[in-house]
Amino acid sequence: xxxxxxxxxxxxxxxxxxxxxxxxxxxxxxxxxxxxxxxxxxxxxxxxxxxxxxxxxxxxxxxxxxxxxxxxxxxxxxxxxxxxxx
Length: 86
Prior knowledge:
Layout: E1 2-3, E2 12-13, H1 15-20, H2 31-34, E3 41-43, H3 48-58, E4 62-67, E5 70-76, H4 77-85
Parallel strand pairs: 3-4
Antiparallel strand pairs: 1-2, 4-5
């Protein structure tokens, strides 16, 4: 297992998960080398419609959620689908 570090505590990614994405386990690259530099965020009180609009307009599947300029989570297209399926 490869623990994901940081405030968000996103969980673990095992070698099988890496294989599914063809991520070389012996790579010298670090997150900074491959990350998306432009971070898109929404406020924690944004409506789901507002979140969906940002995702569509910016063509992304995940947005950081902020509360008073502090990241408190991530909202994804799967999160929106789950909410819609309730």
